[in-house]
Every structure is written in structure tokens, then in C-alpha cells.
Amino acid sequence: MNRATANLLLLVTGAIWGGGFVAQSTAMDAIGPVLFTGVRFLAAAAAVLPFAVIEARMSGMRVLPTMHQWSRFALLGTLLFASLTAQQIGLLTTTVTNSGFLTGIYIVLTPVIGIVLWRVWPHPVVWPSGLMALTGIFFLSGGRLGGMQPGDWWTLLCAVLWALHVQVLGRIVAGARPLQLAFSQFLVCGLLGLAIAPLVEPVAWQMIAAARTEILFAGVISGGVAFTLQAVAQRHTTAPQAAIFMSSEALFAAMFGAIFLGERIGMAGLLGCALIFCAILAVELLPALRIRPARRG
């Protein structure tokens, strides 16, 4: 696979993830956020399982994790569940556009959490990027401090939890096969959703049936297929280019929100989206840049 094809696949991945926000939003008309998260990730686990089996056979190793790995993957699945449930609750009272851009703030938060947990200091670009992202949130909320809806705050909580997930993943991913890890954490996330949903919201088979299209898209397509595309494509392109194409998720979320849900934001909101997107790209790209030595003529 050449780099152009890989980047095209990453762009498709960003588009799928952006469309996933629409599916997640419309599903809330028929099903609760916790139950949706649980069923969605069980579907994702089922979608990834065949690829995990193929991966195991090619590597000559077992499909299921060891007991030691299960303890680590369970932590990842729990963080995944907490983050995505917060995002789903947020979509009850915020727009797909806001959710897409506010979720992307995890890229800015991830290095900060690394300082708190591991005392690993990030690239200096994190600090101006963080300020830029906060300014973007201010404009996205309408340019007033009281403009944030409850769903926006839930989505920010999602971004914090997802940043924590990324940091923990970076510490325990060594020695784990990517598809095995994906299947395991998806399974844990799904089982947690099914276990907790009856305690906090109505649960009925009719709800699942009514949201089946959204569940299949968010679980199988956005979860299973998109993850597989990302895993394959990132082997054939550079990290900076991958960041650019996958960061398109937020832009696709805004575009699909406008096309399918009729969402509109004013000039202040557009400025906020632009600032958040620039902050995301700066944190992803600038640390990866290296000064090349001058060629000797």
C-alpha cells in the first residue's frame, strides 16, 4: 500500500467517526445513553473478533488475553465506558458539532495528564495550544461564560476521561496485539453498559430494536471497521500526516450535523471551532517536527 492510499483510508476513517456522532445523537431519541454504549460496544467487539482471530493465527498466539493482560485491558475498558457514556449523556443536550470539537480537546489534555500521572513533561506547544482551545470553547459557547450547556460539560468530561485512557493505553500497550486489545476493551465496555444500564435508566428490547441502525453504525462501522482501517493505514504513512487526516473527525461531525440534523452555528461558533481545530493540530504536529540538518553541497 502506498502512502496516498493509506492517507485516503485515514480520511475515510475520520469521515466514519464524524458520521458516528450523528448516529450517537439520533439514537438518543429511542434508547438511553448507558444502554446504547453497552450494546454498541458489544457489536464492536463482535465486529473486531474475526480480525483478532486472524491476527492471532498469523502471530501463532492465543486469541484471548492472559489473566495478567485481562486485568490491564479491564482498566482500559472501564475508562472507555466512562468516557463514551459521558459523551452519550452530553449528546442529549448538545449538538453534534459541539460534541465533535469538544471531544477533540483530549489531544490537548493528554500531555497535561501525563505530567500529573507520570511526571513526563510535554512539548512546550501544549501550553499555548491549551489556551487556544479554552478560547475556542468560549467562542463555541456563544462568547459568554453562561453559554455552555450541560451536554457541553459532559463532553468535556468525556475528553478528560479519554485523555486518561490514552495515557494508560500508552503504558500497557507494549506486548499486546492491537486487535486483541481492541476486542478485549470493547467487550469489557459493552458488558459494563449492560450491567449498569438497568440501574440508571429504562431498559427494554424495543429500545434496542428502535435504535438498531444507529447501534450497527456506531458499533460495527464506526467501531470495528474504522478501527481496522486505522490500524492498517497507519503502518504506511507518517504520524504527522495520520494526525491531519484523523483530526478531520471533528470537521466531518460538523458537516454531517449540518446535512442530516440541520445544525447551524454562528460566526462566533465557527471561530471557536477553528481555534480548537488549530490547537489539536498544533499539539499533534509540532512535537513531531524535527529540524533536518542542512545538506552539504
From TrEMBL:
Residues 6-141, 150-283 form the EamA domain. The keyword Membrane applies. The chain crosses the membrane at residues 33-53, 73-93, 99-118, 125-147, 153-174, 186-209, 215-233, 242-261, 267-289. GO terms for cellular component: plasma membrane. The keyword Transmembrane applies. Keywords: Cell membrane, Membrane, Transmembrane, Transmembrane helix. It is a multi-pass membrane protein. It is found in: Cell membrane. This is DMT family transporter.
